[in-house]
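About this split. The held-out portion is used to measure sequence recovery: a designer receives only the structure tokens and must propose an amino acid at every position. Recovery is the fraction of positions where the proposal matches the reference. Here is one held-out target exactly as it appears in the evaluation file.
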């Protein structure tokens, strides 16, 4: 990978992080006014249309996407991601963007910790140490024992676990399915399950919020498109650290738009979690190069 590709990939991944943060802000607004399941359902309708459009342009078209090697795992992945989005959006409405993202940022550590039992990968003592330090950061954010512990603080931690499992299963199915096939099933499976749930929670939406919903759908599609392009021009391990900027963007949005505050313990804990996550990414890259 040359310097030009890395620079372009870094720019695209930074843009991806920014758009995802804006998407989370819009989700926070809409879920505060309407049922979470309905909001996620409409978002998935647009997402499903987007993945179908992408599949049509790929080699083999939709026919190839409909013949995955791991059909049950592909369906489960899609349902798992849809459920994770519902959990995380719920966290936004209860805890806000700042604290939710600070806790959710531990998902790369969960991926590293679970890569052994799920994928059979070997995790050395250095990465286990980083994982342990990272979860100390999570405890600093949650502050159990120092104040009245709110069970709601565990909601973004649950979302992080679900997203980590989704990421590991995504890596597993690449052993037999192309990324475009996995992307197709992510959108279609999620749209089906969210329609089955969300249609029973339909609420009338005012015209102004339909505009926000349209923008939410556009950000969801554009963020995934930017991420695909970033991974096409640069190695994932090289540009993954830039994804942590989503925490910065989401925190800024939460403080400026929604009037949230950045508590000292949340800032310190988030820095520890991000540092530990960056170390695990670096160690994974070193091991891959050996």
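Reference sequence for scoring:
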């Amino acid at each position: 990978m040359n310097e030009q590709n890395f620079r372009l990939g870094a720019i695209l991944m930074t843009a991806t992080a920014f758009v995802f943060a804006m998407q989370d802000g819009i989700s926070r607004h809409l879920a505060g006014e309407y049922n979470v399941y309905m909001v996620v359902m409409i978002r998935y309708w647009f997402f499903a249309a987007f993945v179908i459009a992408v599949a049509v342009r790929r080699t083999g078209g939709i026919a190839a996407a409909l013949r995955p090697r791991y059909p049950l795992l592909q369906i489960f992945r899609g349902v798992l991601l849809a459920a994770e989005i519902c959990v995380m959006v719920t966290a936004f409405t209860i805890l806000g963007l700042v604290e939710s993202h600070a806790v959710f940022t531990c998902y790369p550590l969960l991926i590293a910790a679970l890569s052994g039992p799920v994928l059979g990968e070997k995790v050395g003592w250095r990465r286990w140490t980083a994982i342990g330090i990272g979860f100390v950061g999570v405890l600093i954010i949650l502050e159990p024992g120092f104040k009245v512990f709110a069970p709601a603080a565990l909601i973004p931690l649950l979302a992080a676990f679900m997203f980590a499992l989704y990421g590991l299963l995504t890596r597993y199915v690449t052993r037999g399915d192309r990324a475009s096939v996995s992307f197709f099933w992510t959108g279609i499976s999620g749209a089906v399950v969210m329609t089955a749930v969300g249609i029973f929670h339909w609420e009338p939406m005012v015209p102004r919020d339909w505009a926000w919903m349209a923008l939410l759908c556009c950000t969801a599609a554009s963020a995934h498109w930017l991420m695909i392009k970033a991974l096409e021009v640069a190695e994932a391990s090289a540009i993954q650290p830039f994804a942590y900027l989503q925490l910065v963007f989401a925190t800024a949005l939460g403080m400026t738009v929604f009037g949230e505050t950045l508590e000292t313990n949340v800032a310190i804990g988030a820095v520890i979690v991000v540092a530990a996550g960056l170390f695990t990414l670096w160690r994974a890259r070193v091991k891959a190069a050996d």
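Annotator remark: The two ends are 17 Å apart (CA to CA).
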